[in-house]
Amino acid sequence: MGPKRRMPLLRWSFWRLAAASRNINTTGQIGDGREAAVVDYVLTNARAGDIDDVVATIDKFAYEKSILINVGDEKGELLDAAVRRADPSLVLELGTYCGYSALRIARSAPKAKVYSVELAEANAANARQIWAHAGVADRVTCVVGTIGDGGRTLDSLANDHGFASGTLDFVFLDHDKDAYLDDLESIVDRGWLHPGSVVVADNVGMPGAPKYREFMRQQQGTGWNTVEHKTHVEYQTLVSDLVLESDYLG
């Protein structure tokens, strides 16, 4: 791995990302066009219908063109393993971005239906193009909204997509870090989880989800069993991160 891959401080796209936190929180995008650019890059360079090649092409873009804020290749392997362990039929992802993590989930659980909730319509449109190119659009669906919108998105998942008591096998949290705990509790309150459901949370170390981490520590052995995976922020090895993998005990 070359120095620009290991140390993002050497890359202009990192500094543009660092200056764009307000954009990310309000629009879901960095603000310099990299999200649209990765769609064009995938459509031009990845083999249609080849999910492995689409994932690899997104990773190549993130290393060689512009850093992306999806889960990335290193943490993606942790996500893959958790999905395979859960062997889910129904998956809920919070935070679609460019559709990368949903691709990894769909690849690891080829029989699952994956629903990804995204606040930004532009991100949803980008992700749908990438999913279609990868050949998974029939089993990966983006729902535009947020869990914290007064119940509208939760109602849509229930009424339009069949979410019901005990049906949800796997949840991936990779959206607003301050909303992790509240949104998970809203899902639990709906009764959709069952004993053995698995929840994976990205970026618990950086930028951090301290309320969520503390909750899982307090619930250890009673409501949840959690493993903390030490890893790195996406697409570099300089900055550390944590991914939490939690089994729901009911």
UniProtKB/TrEMBL annotation:
Keyword DNA repair: no
PROSITE patterns found in the cross-reference section: SAM_OMT_I (PS51682)
InterPro entries the UniProt entry points to: SAM-dependent_MTases_sf (IPR029063), SAM_O-MeTrfase (IPR002935)
Single GO MF descriptor: O-methyltransferase activity
Transmembrane parts of this sequence: none
A matching Pfam family: Methyltransf_3
Signal sequence residues: none
Biological process annotations from GO: methylation
Keywords per UniProt: Methyltransferase, S-adenosyl-L-methionine, Transferase
The name this protein goes by in its record: Predicted O-methyltransferase YrrM
Protein's organism: Mycobacterium numidiamassiliense
